[in-house]
Amino acid sequence: MNETTARILEGAPARDAVLARVAGRLAAAGSPVVRLATVLVGNDAPSRRYVASKHAVAGEVGIGSLQVELPADTTQAALEDRVARLATDESVHGILVQMPLPAHLDAERVLALIPAAKDVDGLTEASLGRLMRGVPGHVGCTPLGVIELLAHYGIATAGRHAVVVGRSLLVGLPLSVLLARKGIDATATLAHSRSQNLVEVCRSADIIVSATGVAHSIGVAHVKPGAVVIDVGISRTERGIVGDVDLAAIAGVASAVTPMPGGTGLMTVACLMSNTLDAAAMQGVL
């Protein structure tokens, strides 16, 4: 390593700060009962691990949880009935349906049943509409986690050019809106697989966020000296989990970069807890 090696923006300190705020808010409110419900369909191993981690963290900060598990052959009607019951259950303040669902199920019909106040994943039409209009609501946990991480490490965003690579509803699209919001004030460019001259677009950025899931697709050619690079992509390879960013290649060019694993992924669950607390407040619990 040399003195030009990029600063590594570890996710753990930023995650811990978010979780400490959540625990502090709960304590200050007299530790009311706040409950998060997750719905898991099937036996997908990564999904099962993600859901287990969410419940573990919830318990650590004082949020109650309810785990609903349904078999992989669950019918659309049965799944919709279960989510509809959670939607009207006043003891449940946040609902998260773990994605992806088995191929025979219509995710949009399921998401439409979740009230905006309980949509702690920020994926429904109502939540995305609120984001676009700047109306209070829940923002997706991963894009929110990126914003929290930038703020934790004091990364300047106002007036900076931020390029988001990847246009998914889960990350790229809402993140580009968040970055351009008043108070964050970046000049946001949303790039994707059909963007021409992607290398040149990225090289114009002060901040690059990649969320495509294409292993090591962001290399030294994409990064101008001093840029901040945020890696959201996850790929499982023979070498283990890697991100979109070739960290070893860009370490001597970027000023700061998140690792993968150990970076933005840790922020997602923390922001889910924050959203769950916000959901409880929207429902008059806090």
Fold and architecture overview:
- The radius of gyration is 19 Å and the shape is globular.
- It is built from ten helices and eleven strands.
- With 286 residues, it is an alpha/beta fold.
- It has two domains: 31-123, Leucine Dehydrogenase, chain A, domain 1 (Rossmann fold, 3-Layer(aba) Sandwich), CATH 3.40.50.10860; 141-266, Rossmann fold, CATH 3.40.50.
- Helix 1 (11-28) crosses helix 6 (141-152).
- Strands 1-11-8-7-5-6 form a six-stranded parallel beta sheet.
- It starts with 6 loop residues before the first strand and ends with a helix.
- The protein has helices at residues 11-28, 45-61, 76-88, 107-111, 125-133, 141-152, 172-180, 198-203, 247-250, 264-282, and strands at 7-8, 35-41, 64-70, 94-97, 161-165, 187-191, 207-210, 228-231, 235-237, 240-242, 256-257.
Keywords, please?
Rossmann fold; three-stranded parallel beta sheet; 10 helices; globular
What is the first-to-last residue Cα distance? Answer: 48 Å
Contiguous helical run count: 10
**Broad structural category:** alpha/beta
Query: What number is the mean pLDDT?
Result: 96
Shape: globular
The CATH architecture classification of the largest domain is 3-Layer(aba) Sandwich
CATH class designation of the largest domain: Alpha Beta
Binned, the helix content reads 25-40%
Biggest beta-sheet profile: 6 strands, parallel
| Poorly predicted ranges | none
User: Please, what is the CATH homologous superfamily of the largest domain?
Assistant: NAD(P)-binding Rossmann-like Domain
Query: How many domains would you count in the coordinates?
Result: 2
Order of helices and strands: EHEHEHEHHHEHEHEEEEHEH
CATH topology grouping of the largest domain: Rossmann fold
